[in-house]
């Protein structure tokens, strides 16, 4: 609409003006315009109408002809100069400055009529927190970032504040926001609700009880039973008192103890705390993990949830119902159950709930293959599901996102906007936290999740589910409900199989029945069956080869026999777990005559196989592995391990789940989460190689694999068979493996450079916070310690002050000397006892000086020494005062500090006692020994302990020994000569020598103190001791609460040292450019960043740089020597020298890994393969260049693509656009054909 110029208003014009109402295009006439203001329409909106769409021509002209940033100005070309003249372009330097508009500091608020709701007015309100953005705040109230960063976030963003991290300062608690006010339940209460005429009266009147006309007492009075009265009245009075004392307790919230619990928490948590624990008083030590009872049926389930968010075609088990109830209450749960027990139900319900609530759910799994399968399952169920893995990104705007845990971790660190809408995070296969390499990722994610996200953990059965949940509950400050069930929907029967020919094919022996009982009978039957077959010669002279290994032909005989037997009994499909890839292949190939499928099944397999591989290029369809597998599959046999091409693996999984693969030879990875149950599971052996050596399967691994047997709804029981090829395994091994406890969840938390840098770039988060919250530190109960510290401080303040005047002035140094003396003596005694000579000296008959609560420097003689080396005790005969045999008259207990060495001599008649002494009771070992008859002494003493022989005189042996001890004591009243640990016992270690010298010095110094002569010394010393013991305990607790007691703290300082010397962070801990680059990179961050900054990749061609970087993702050893170009060889040498330098630096900074180990992680076996692949060589030819299996090659190239993407990002940050585009080219050159065929699950 063209603008009309209206002449200024003249005297003849009516005083009218137009007012534009809102944005709807309505106008109103107003008659008295403000004088002097132009006539065109005025608007109720402060800034006028929002701009409409502009003319595209002017837009193009502005963008491409007038924009100085777009065209070069200094071009010498004549035509260009002419063009500049034509366009008359003005140089506008300001347009090059780009500054984001400052956020609006105010908004419009509506004023309405309270009765009619009519709109009366707009008022301008100032907005708080407008300056918050993803670059400076952890708060959820910050502004959303640009849409391009909303999914993965950016590595310059701050993460959102992790839940449970807010340790608020007092000022923050005192400073209240406008949203909350202190409600005083006593004063200023509204008596009349707004809008009502009458109200309530809250004044505290004593309730008047209307006197009942007839009561029991008045009736009884008429009966004249007087003796009832007093008791009744007392009772009534008592009742009255009780009631009176009950009422005031509930008068105000403060007395209930709720008030202080709430006021100490943050404003945001107030509501939550009240919600999470209604009606329970805050206990002293709260348990965060709450076990849920799944034994009794859940009767009122449908009453409590009348309309379920998701309905299943089957009735739920009790544990599933309990989990659903907890999810409805928005609580976090930990569900531990066997595979195929139906844990997915919990995940499905959470996804359904989040769809109902319009929020989002993230489902994480440890393995990419598992993510793809879950994507297909959930896509069929819910429709609105997305997938994020390293190389695939499908519908990321969906309400349910499936991803690997690593991606969730980077989203959390990079402050992705998805986190705002997140309601649930589901961690599947949580027992993966035991994985040494990747377990730390789970812990990081659990620690970094914000407060509003609830957690669902699904795991195989683990023994310490409660402890693990307790840890999560404590770091997140919320309850975790633990639902654990050991019930199997399909019980398992475990057999031993010894058959190896048609004659013996029925030899299977039940070892563990469906109820879980171990049957030894079955075991011995198997042993006998195996024995019968060994020749008579071998039985009498022992077999020639007792090794576990059997030849290929023997193996073949066993498998043919077994599979023939199983298919006869219709026990297929079978999964045969074999713990070596080559063994898998050999076993499958050896079944060349076996055909297990019908012709109809063959046709189905053929058509599915052809259809699935139709998107491969012609050459790729003729790969040897594919041809071999096609042949095997048609006969119902298949192989599944990491060396198989991913697309083939998926074909096999799909055919297996349809029941068309009858026998599957698989490695352990098949049992990890892939939900593909079979009728029978067979173990080729029970030993596996775990990277360091051969060992038996752990109970957890065995259960995980055996749990694949038994299909729910199809089989009554699942069959598990263990082949006894060479001989029957040891019974103890089998018992442990089948019925042992599964592996405990253990923390694999370790510090990684990426984690340290990611936390250092955010001032509000500290690495020590992360370490303190890790599962490895879960034994630290900081809250309990802090409560204790407060109590001890109060105790300290109540203790009476010390009197250190005059004679008592050296009381404290005296205390410290005595304490040191005690510690040194104990250390020396320990050393003596741990030595051979010391134990020899402490033998029967040795005279010792005893010092404990009952005896002070009394002589004794050893009668017996116990055998256990841990808590060794000595039985000794000790002399004492008459009447102090039992130890009740011990007056010296209060003064253990007086180090007088004078021996005890009884004042009255001498008596004796026989006691068991601990090591610390023996003050000194003297040089004397006595001839004693221990048995007689002990028997006589024990006899006289019985009441009827109480008054008998002591036996001959005892009285002789006691008199001898008394004589010794009287002969040496000062002290007796003792065995010196260094000279007599020949203990020459530095600690002992130093200790005994120090002991002499300390003993001499004791005599010089004045305080011991003070009359009030005893009581004053007791006070010092009390105060000092409290202070010591306080120091100990303060240390435990502080960061100094973290087990990983030294390593953290070492790693910071490495980062500082490489200039990733400066001395104050601020992250530098190199550190920013390293944040982008998920593995081997130091090496890659160094390569970038040293320009190692610049001279290389794109395909060469891809080949060089393959050393970061390839982990196997190869036998084949690669043939490579000279530039590549130079590149490899440079990489190795950089790695050597980093390795040595780490060593210098104190990290235990040697430089050789660090350099040894990088393997260059696939450089030639990747180089040729990037140059376009077909896959069939590449497979011939190396001995590495096809599946492994494909996986390495896929992971290499992720590394190239990371390097490209890093190059962008540094500003090296050439390297960035080179990485892009490299990435494009390897992304082709069979390596990057899309997964069948995602179509």
Describe, in plain words, how this protein is organized in 3D:
Keywords: ATP-binding, Cytoplasm, Helicase, Hydrolase, Nucleotide-binding, RNA-binding. This is SKI2 subunit of superkiller complex. By secondary structure, the chain is an alpha/beta fold. Among the domains are: 197 residues, P-loop containing nucleotide triphosphate hydrolases (Rossmann fold); 234 residues, P-loop containing nucleotide triphosphate hydrolases (Rossmann fold, 3-Layer(aba) Sandwich), CATH 3.40.50; 203 residues, no CATH class; 156 residues, Sec63 N-terminal domain-like fold (Orthogonal Bundle). The protein is built from 43 helices and 28 strands. A 9-stranded mixed β-sheet has the order 6-14-7-13-12-8-11-9-10. Strand 18, helix 22 and strand 19 form a beta-alpha-beta unit. The protein is globular, with a radius of gyration of 42 Å. The two termini are 50 Å apart.
Descriptive key words:
single chain, 1243 residues, alpha/beta, Rossmann fold, nine-stranded mixed β-sheet, seven-stranded mixed β-sheet, 43 helices, 28 strands
Span from first to last CA?
50 Å
| C-alpha-based Rg, rounded | 42 Å
Mean pLDDT figure: 78
Write the CATH fold name of the domain at 492-536 and 551-739.
Answer: Rossmann fold
Secondary-structure-based class equals alpha/beta
Q: Flag low-confidence runs.
A: 225-284, 541-547, 888-896
User: Rough shape?
Assistant: globular
Determine the strand fraction and express it as a percent band.
5-15%
Would you count the extended β strands for me? 28
Spatial strand arrangement across the major sheet: 6-14-7-13-12-8-11-9-10
Mind describing the biggest β-sheet? 9 strands, mixed
Count of helix runs:
43
What percentage of residues falls in helices of 4 or more residues? 40-55%
CATH superfamily of the domain at 492-536 and 551-739: P-loop containing nucleotide triphosphate hydrolases
Task: Assign the CATH architecture of the domain at 492-536 and 551-739.
Answer: 3-Layer(aba) Sandwich
The top-level CATH class of the domain at 492-536 and 551-739 is Alpha Beta
């Amino acid at each position: 609409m063209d603008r009309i110029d209206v002449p200024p208003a003249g005297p003849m014009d009516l005083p009218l003006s137009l007012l534009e109402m809102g944005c709807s295009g309505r106008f109103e006439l107003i008659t008295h315009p403000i004088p002097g203001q132009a006539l065109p329409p005025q608007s109720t909106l402060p800034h006028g109408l929002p701009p409409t769409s502009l003319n595209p021509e002017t837009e193009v002209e502005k963008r491409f002809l007038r924009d100085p940033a777009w065209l070069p100005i200094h071009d010498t070309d004549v035509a260009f100069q002419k063009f500049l003249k034509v366009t008359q372009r003005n140089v506008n330097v300001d347009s090059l400055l780009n500054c984001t508009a400052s956020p609006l500091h105010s908004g419009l608020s509506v004023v309405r009529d309270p009765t009619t709701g009519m709109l009366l007015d707009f008022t301008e309100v100032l907005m708080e927190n407008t300056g918050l953005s993803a670059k400076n705040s952890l708060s959820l109230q910050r502004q959303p970032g640009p849409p391009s960063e909303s999914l993965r976030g950016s590595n310059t963003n701050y993460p959102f504040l992790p839940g449970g991290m807010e340790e608020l300062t007092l000022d923050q608690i005192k400073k209240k926001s406008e949203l909350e006010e202190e409600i005083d339940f006593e004063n200023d209460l509204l008596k009349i609700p707004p809008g009502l005429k009458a109200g309530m009266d809250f004044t505290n009147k004593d309730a008047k009880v209307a006197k009942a006309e007839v009561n029991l007492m008045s009736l009884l009075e008429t009966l004249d039973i007087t003796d009832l009265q007093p008791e009744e009245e007392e009772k009534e009075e008592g009742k009255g008192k009780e009631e009176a004392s009950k009422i005031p307790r509930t008068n105000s919230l403060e007395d209930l103890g709720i008030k202080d619990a709430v006021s100490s928490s943050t404003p945001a948590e107030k509501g939550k705390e009240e919600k999470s624990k209604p009606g329970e008083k805050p206990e002293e030590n709260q348990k965060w993990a709450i076990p849920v009872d799944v034994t009794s049926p859940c009767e009122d389930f449908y009453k409590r949830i009348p309309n379920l968010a998701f309905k299943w075609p089957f009735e739920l088990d009790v544990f599933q119902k309990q989990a659903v109830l907890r999810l409805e209450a928005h609580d976090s749960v930990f569900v531990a159950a066997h595979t195929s027990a139906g844990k997915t139900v919990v995940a499905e319900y959470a996804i359904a709930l989040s769809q109902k609530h319009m929020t989002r759910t993230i489902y994480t799994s440890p393995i990419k293959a598992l993510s793809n399968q879950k994507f297909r399952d959930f896509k069929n169920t819910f429709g609105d599901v997305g997938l994020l893995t390293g190389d695939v990104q499908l519908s990321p705007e969906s309400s349910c996102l499936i991803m690997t845990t690593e991606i969730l971790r980077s989203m959390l660190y990079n402050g992705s906007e998805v986190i705002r809408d997140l309601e649930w995070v589901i961690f599947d296969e949580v027992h993966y936290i035991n994985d040494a390499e990747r377990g730390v990722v789970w812990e990081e994610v659990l620690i970094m999740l914000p407060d509003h996200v609830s957690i669902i953990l699904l795991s195989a059965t683990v023994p310490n589910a409660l402890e693990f949940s307790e840890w999560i509950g404590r770091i997140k400050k919320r309850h975790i409900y633990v639902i654990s069930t050991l019930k199997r929907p399909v019980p398992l029967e475990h057999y031993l199989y010894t058959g190896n020919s048609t004659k013996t094919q029925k030899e299977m022996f039940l070892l563990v029945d469906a109820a879980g009982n171990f049957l030894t009978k079955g075991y011995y039957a198997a042993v006998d069956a195996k024995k019968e077959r060994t020749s008579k010669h071998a039985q009498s002279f022992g077999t020639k080869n007792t090794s576990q290994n059997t030849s290929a032909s023997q193996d073949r005989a066993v498998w043919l026999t077994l599979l023939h037997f199983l298919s006869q009994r219709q026990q297929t499909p079978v999964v045969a777990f074999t713990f070596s890839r080559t063994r898998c292949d050999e076993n499958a190939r050896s079944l060349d005559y076996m055909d297990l499928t019908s012709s109809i099944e063959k046709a189905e397999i053929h058509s599915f196989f052809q259809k699935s591989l139709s998107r491969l290029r012609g050459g790729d369809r003729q790969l040897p592995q594919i041809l071999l597998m096609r042949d095997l599959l048609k006969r119902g046999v298949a192989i599944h391990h990491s060396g198989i091409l991913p697309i083939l693996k998926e074909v096999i999984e799909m055919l297996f789940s349809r029941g068309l693969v009858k026998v599957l030879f698989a490695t352990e990875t098949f049992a990890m989460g892939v939900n593909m149950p079979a009728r029978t599971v067979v173990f080729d052996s029970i030993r596996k190689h775990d990277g360091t050596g051969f060992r038996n399967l752990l109970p957890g691994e065995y259960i995980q694999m055996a749990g694949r047997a038994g299909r729910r709804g199809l089989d009554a029981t699942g069959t598990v068979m263990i082949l006894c090829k060479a001989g029957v395994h040891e019974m103890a091994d089998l018992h442990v493996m089948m019925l042992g406890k599964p592996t405990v969840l253990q923390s694999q938390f370790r510090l990684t450079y990426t984690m340290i840098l990611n936390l250092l770039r955010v001032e509000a988060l500290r690495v020590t916070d992360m370490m303190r919250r890790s599962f490895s530190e879960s034994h630290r109960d900081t809250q309990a310690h802090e409560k204790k510290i407060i109590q001890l401080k109060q105790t300290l303040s109540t203790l009476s002050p010390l009197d250190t005047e005059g004679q008592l002035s050296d009381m404290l140094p005296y205390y410290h000397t005595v304490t040191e003396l005690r510690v040194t003596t104990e250390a020396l005694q320990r050393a003596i006892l741990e030595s051979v000579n010391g134990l020899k000296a402490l033998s029967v008959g040795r005279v010792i000086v005893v010092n404990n609560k009952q005896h002070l420097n009394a002589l004794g003689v050893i009668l017996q020494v116990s055998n256990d080396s841990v808590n060794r005790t000595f039985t000794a005969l000790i002399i004492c005062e008459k009447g102090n045999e039992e130890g009740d008259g011990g007056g010296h207990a209060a003064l253990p500090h007086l180090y007088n060495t004078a021996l005890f001599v009884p004042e009255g008649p001498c008596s004796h006692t026989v006691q068991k002494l601990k090591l610390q009771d023996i003050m000194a070992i003297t040089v004397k020994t006595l001839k004693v008859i221990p048995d007689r002494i002990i028997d006589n003493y024990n006899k006289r302990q019985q009441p009827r022989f109480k008054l008998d005189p002591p036996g001959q042996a005892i009285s002789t020994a006691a008199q001898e001890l008394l004589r010794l004591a009287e002969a040496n009243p000062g002290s007796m000569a003792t065995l010196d640990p260094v000279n007599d016992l020949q203990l020459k270690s530095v600690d002992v020598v130093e200790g005994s010298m120090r002991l002499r010095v300390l003993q001499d110094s004791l005599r010089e103190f004045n305080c011991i002569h003070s009359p009030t010394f005893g009581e004053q010393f007791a006070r010092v001791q009390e105060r000092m013991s409290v202070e010591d305990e306080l120091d100990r607790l303060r240390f435990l609460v502080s960061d100094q007691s973290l087990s990983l703290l030294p390593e953290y300082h070492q790693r910071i040292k490495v980062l500082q010397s490489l200039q990733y962070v400066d001395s104050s801990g601020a992250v530098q450019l190199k550190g920013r680059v390293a944040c982008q990179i998920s593995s081997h961050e130091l090496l890659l960043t160094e390569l970038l900054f040293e320009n190692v990749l610049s001279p290389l061609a794109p395909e060469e740089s891809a080949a060089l970087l393959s050393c970061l993702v390839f982990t196997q050893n190869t036998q084949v020597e690669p043939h490579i170009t000279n530039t590549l060889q130079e590149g490899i040498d440079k990489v190795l020298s950089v790695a050597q330098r980093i390795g040595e630096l780490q060593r210098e900074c104190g990290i235990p890994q040697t430089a050789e180990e660090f350099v040894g992680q990088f393997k260059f076996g696939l450089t030639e393969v990747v180089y040729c692949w990037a140059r376009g060589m077909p896959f069939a030819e590449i497979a011939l260049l190396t001995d590495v299996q096809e599946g492994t090659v494909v996986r390495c190239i896929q992971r290499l693509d992720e590394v190239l993407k990371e390097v490209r990002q890093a190059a962008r940050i540094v500003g090296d656009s050439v390297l960035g585009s080179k990485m892009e080219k490299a990435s494009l050159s390897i992304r082709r054909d069979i390596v990057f065929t899309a997964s069948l699950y995602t179509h």
